[in-house]
Fold this protein.
Amino acid sequence: MARLTHTIYPLTTGFHGATRPTPNPELIAKYGYDSFVPFENSPDNSDEKLQAIAKEIRRDIVRALVEAKSGHSGGPLGSADIFAALYFGGVMRYDPKNPWWPDRDRFILSAGHMCPVLYSTLANAGFFPKPELLTLRKFNSRLQGHPGRDMGLPGIESSTGSLGQGLGIAVGMALADKRVDKNSRRVFALTGDGELAEGEIWEAALIAAHWELDNFTMVVDRNFCQIDGRTEDVLKLNPVGDKFRAFNFHVIECNGNNISELRAAFKEARSIKGRPTCIVAKTFMGHGISFMQDDYRWHGKPPTPEQAEQALVELV
Amino acid sequence: MARLTHTIYPLTTGFHGATRPTPNPELIAKYGYDSFVPFENSPDNSDEKLQAIAKEIRRDIVRALVEAKSGHSGGPLGSADIFAALYFGGVMRYDPKNPWWPDRDRFILSAGHMCPVLYSTLANAGFFPKPELLTLRKFNSRLQGHPGRDMGLPGIESSTGSLGQGLGIAVGMALADKRVDKNSRRVFALTGDGELAEGEIWEAALIAAHWELDNFTMVVDRNFCQIDGRTEDVLKLNPVGDKFRAFNFHVIECNGNNISELRAAFKEARSIKGRPTCIVAKTFMGHGISFMQDDYRWHGKPPTPEQAEQALVELV
Amino acid sequence: MADTSVLKDNLTNLAAGPKTNGPMPRFEAHTKKATRFGFGEALVVLGERYENVVVLGGDITGSVMTSYFKDKFPDRFFSMGITEATATLVAAGLALSGNIPFFATYGAFASCRNTDMLRISLAYNDANVKIGGGHAGISVGEDGATHQALEEIAIVRVLPNMTLVVPCDYLETKKATIAIGEHYGPCYIRFGRSDVPSFTLEETPFVLGKAQTFRQGRDATVIACGPMVWEALVAAYELENEGLDVRVINMSTIKPIDREAILKAARETGAIVTAEEHQITAGLGGAVSEVLAQECPTPVEFVGVKDTFGGSGKPDELMKFFGLTSGDIKNAIRTVHSRKAQ
Amino acid sequence: MADTSVLKDNLTNLAAGPKTNGPMPRFEAHTKKATRFGFGEALVVLGERYENVVVLGGDITGSVMTSYFKDKFPDRFFSMGITEATATLVAAGLALSGNIPFFATYGAFASCRNTDMLRISLAYNDANVKIGGGHAGISVGEDGATHQALEEIAIVRVLPNMTLVVPCDYLETKKATIAIGEHYGPCYIRFGRSDVPSFTLEETPFVLGKAQTFRQGRDATVIACGPMVWEALVAAYELENEGLDVRVINMSTIKPIDREAILKAARETGAIVTAEEHQITAGLGGAVSEVLAQECPTPVEFVGVKDTFGGSGKPDELMKFFGLTSGDIKNAIRTVHSRKAQ
Ligand SMILES: Cc1ncc(C[n+]2csc(CCOP(=O)(O)OP(=O)(O)O)c2C)c(N)n1
Ligand SMILES: Cc1ncc(C[n+]2csc(CCOP(=O)(O)OP(=O)(O)O)c2C)c(N)n1
Ligand SMILES: [Mg+2]
Ligand SMILES: [Mg+2]
């Protein structure tokens, strides 16, 4: 029987014409972006190495946001350690030089607003040149305010930004891998915690468990913050772990700002058979920056230039 | 401060003109519908009395369905005991002679397709004359294939039929009662078990628990059947009780075909403070009729005339 | 439903009125069959042709005939339970991984329960997912308003990147389903539950994105979709007696719409009736009116549901009550023809 | 966004071109203000007037200004978390129990995430719920396509029983919000995030269901909604130099639509431009075209987003790129005027 194949990646219908925005050359020089050498992804990287990478991801988030003058600081900064572990600790299989390598593992950012951390991670892994980070949210940038697959940015598997949708897409990919193609790819997804209120999360959870998708690992960025306040004030979510357990997930609760706990969690997830895994990663919103830490008001605003400077000092 | 009040019930925009369908007079006579005296709702009714009422509800379901020539048998027959307990065991407060009495308790049938059991219950309680049951699903009947509020049928609080929606409406009513009007009304809702797959169920659960709606009781008709097969084959739902517990409900699991267990469950629900209750009522689809019992193929079809006759024999 | 007897003894006249010329498709109208069977059969054809066609079930596989595929290819059929929104997302994920997923359920839920998913994860994502919306329109019958899908045309056509097909009978549904399966991009196909005349033949042309003229005529044109195409043919045939020479266009692809066919009809016949088993608001009538307003203002009469909800009843009764019969189309043709004269 | 300087020294001309007669509303255009503030302020007015007005929050109360009500009436504000679909249902339940609930979130999610709920639990139920859809259109800016609502008009107007309002500026949004709060039935109001000219005055008439002529003219009419009304006024004003006398109609209620105003404009000016911050498919342009096709076929040009998704950028940049400026309206007027001549 034949396969009917189509070119799926990259999609390049990004519609604003051919001219992409130009990153500020002074900033490129100031940040040393022109001489940057991407980090390697390896299980042999030490925890310290990953911590350093997480810090670099955080610096890049701050730099991109202050230049964009809008965007989300809190979630991206808080979850940088998760991304460092995933992309640089040998958890995910990918090839930045061949970003659409069919055998790559997939990552879906269900919490699309947290894209600054994904863009920074991808740039640090060498998916695209770092200076492009400085075009975040600008007209015709490949770094849209929420991930847009139409822009063809290497490493962006799907458009997201409408909360609760990415998880179902990731489950579909895991279903494709485990039940249709029967390959060894793994699929990862990250959701916010406020995002868990969306019913599609629980629909996707039912489906992932029903089809016993043990190739699927979701991470909840459990920072107890969302736009209007603390999650338990906006809409009580606890006990999150029990919820996923009752939905037949293997649940791992860990400190999401601790590289070694995260690596252990991903390792454990890989060993689980017959059910998907949910890692409830307890983080602090804005982690690493004193004046942002654990403050929900930093959900959706960028630092001012002064605050950015201060943040970059703290992130050395 | 003023209230801006509007007439909400009954809505009578039912659009098919003034002539309602005429029930078959022979059947009215045959079933004794012309001399029927409605049953009383009282906590003093014995279990045996309620069992007898449940049997009558079941008979009326069979009679309505065979005359309609389409419609849902399995769920309605299976859940008749729940309705008998709710409407005739003194659990719900209502006045069939004054059906829109403002202080009435509210019941929402989230599983709208199960309306034959609700219609039969309402007729047995005296909300409308029994002969009207024989107009089920006919052109311009007040007994629509799925409950239509536009028809103004006494006892129908809301249109339902799109699964997963009724629960949220019921939660809204409970919120109105407990948090806005601060009255003593109670709100009940019934969902199917297949229906629990809809994400809106879990959104509604989060909201009910967050607002601590202890005036809200939902019943899950846990018959392990849905259209395409057994629930655990279509989409695994177990452990249902654990799910609602993790969503901060008080959970009661009981035999939903046992009147006394159901009455105890509703009593317990009323005593719970600070959280909503979910009664997981284990029933058999098509309960009481040998050739339907526990068979998902009876979800959505009516009995043939021969089958109906046989069923009515079994239901004596 | 629709009466086929009128055509029993004069099938040729259906296709080409005596006053027109040029070869027209031949039709036969001996059977009635619900369009959903065409959908179900096509999935099996696609499944046989392509190993990466997969189907998702929404707990009504027997109603929307995905059961055929399920029985034939159980390994490529995945039950999603009653999760229309997420089934749409899972389909998107399957598509992004190289599969061609079909997800079908009742049209009301295939277009309304997952609208944001259609918008972001299918359309914006340009994911190669095929959505089947069954139980289209009032002819669903006894289930009543909640199950009678009357909004899909508006909802799907407002979304960029989508392809929307509303085939006219069983066989065209089969062809159209195969066509969208082989076409890249997010597609929506609408089909019905009740038996409707089955009249197109293997040789009747179907091309995605192209309207087909099913009957020539010079006095007015009916642009119809779904089972209303048959009603339009009957109306046109019967109006011959009144000296009206009516063209019938089968607008089976509604997005992208065949602007040329609309404009040609407007220029050549000067009067248009649209006929759809859908709200007259924002549906096929809207799509046609938009094209005409932009390029060739022309009188249009709308046959469809007039901004109300449906209800329970027998399909026939309902189609009559809601004004969706050949008789209603005839009235609309007479009206638009007299408006043209003004 | 839109340039107001052109009007600084000649406010009268904006309202009534020299070639027309009859009194016209007076406008002032000194400030810019996002329409969402009108929504937020009106909720407080309603809350003060009626004890049974309640508000549901969707975790963006600060963006859609339900925060004003929350601060003033914390006991009547209920946080729903991020559950757009169920928040809509909870609102329906509150309404059926005699309250007048408002639920507001971004328009993309207020119309797409809950479409089936709007259809069944609001529209079919005739529940007295008011939905506020913020962040309308492209002018949302940097957040990009997922957050730029461009489909609400199509989605809401296809549903029977709904009332749909798209007010033109801050003050009209305030009036319209109060009006829908006092009107029985399911309503949807659309408003924006970015600052736009604030030009109507307390005395400017607003009546639910009635279009307002904001400028007289005989050569062509722009029928606009939302912030495009201002752009239309600027376009009309500037075209005076070219000898074009252009009428501007503020179609703030889109459902039910004011057919009389459309037909009068078509009969008196013979050429129509529609302007909306929405897809040109099935939106205001579609609604106007449907009325015209049925009663008075007239050339129409459509200004709106041309069946594509939005993207990130500054509001100004985007409005220009997507063709949503007074300049685009001017071009459309010139085109439609020349078509009329043909
Ligand atoms: C469907 C949908 N509803 C609302 C929004 C607006 N929104 C964006 S982020 C957010 C809060 C998300 O909270 P959480 O998931 O905890 O992310 P965090 O604030 O921790 O970054 C909201 C409501 C959205 N993007 N999508
Ligand atoms: C949103 C929605 N999706 C699908 C349907 C079609 N449908 C009606 S009943 C049903 C199965 C429901 O299963 P369950 O809740 O267990 O009820 P039971 O079969 O036990 O009566 C389905 C899929 C619907 N009515 N609404
Ligand atoms: Mg959070
Ligand atoms: Mg069941």
